[in-house]
Amino acid sequence: MSYTIHEVAQKMGISTYTIRYYHDHGMLPFVKRDENNNRVFDDNDLEWLNIIVCLRATGMPVERIHHYLDLVQEGECTVPERYEMMKTQQERTLSEITALNKHLSTINFKVDHYADIIENNKPDMFVPTNLRDKPTTDQTA
Amino acid sequence: MSYTIHEVAQKMGISTYTIRYYHDHGMLPFVKRDENNNRVFDDNDLEWLNIIVCLRATGMPVERIHHYLDLVQEGECTVPERYEMMKTQQERTLSEITALNKHLSTINFKVDHYADIIENNKPDMFVPTNLRDKPTTDQTA
DNA sequence: TACCCCCTTCGACCTACTTGAAGGCAACCC
DNA sequence: GGGTTGCCTTCAAGTAGGTCGAAGGGGGTA
Questions:
Q1: Where does the HTH merR-type domain start and stop, copy by copy (chains A, B) (predicted)?
Q2: Which of A41, A136, B5, B40 can pair with B32 through a Cys bridge, CB separation 3.0 to 4.6 Å?
Q3: Strand D: which bases are under 7 Å from protein Cβ?
């Protein structure tokens, strides 16, 4: 199967601008062109793009992803380095999820607090203005 | 208690550059100055900063955070809008965590795959070069 | 007085897009 | 056949959110 840049954008949930950016920066080495110079993507390109999206979404810089793709093309002897990269990315992603869960509980606390005020019409009347609804720490929520 | 910008940076896990950036952009309205024009932070400032960090980390643009802080200062009548903002942020954060978990399973699959190759010295010998170690979709992992 | 360290402001730089301008090719409509 | 639509191209400029360097000042200690 072959796809236009718009089809790929829709499938992957990213913009055509972003795809062109990745292509222009050498991260999609197998993409072909048709007779009008338009980019033509196949399933292999989609799989490359899928892993690019995965690594970007988990915070790997474009330059590192480029390096990883180079390693893949260099063959088996680069497996240990690739392993280390993925290990690092795994740990980073786990900490990111942990951090987001902490922040989520802070936000949950706010949502509940506001819901309470709205439902029970219960303003914090005895607290000075600049301390009303003061931000909470992650721990309190 | 009062704190220097460096103490605050350490406590919050962000750089002094970032704190100055937030202050310069009006997001820390209560920060004082000492006789040498140095910024002086108190516990109330820390709590504001804590929620700024929480909202930024969960993807809220600086401009929206600024708006939220304005709402807090305007008083009780803005509670419904603040509630909507936090609801939106809650949903966004939940989807972000879901997405990260999907990406994590892709990465886990890679890590396991590489570990297998390294431990068992088992190259994918019968697969053509540009398909070796091809990226997997989130579903396969 | 010299040195060191931390602070300040201002402006430049960086990453990863995002958008705009200018123009080409093709397909449809009348 | 000419006009319009619509997608594509390239290249350059703009944006968000920091990040950093230069230049300079204050204060403490030797």
A1: 1-71
A2: B40
A3: 7-10, 16-20, 26-27
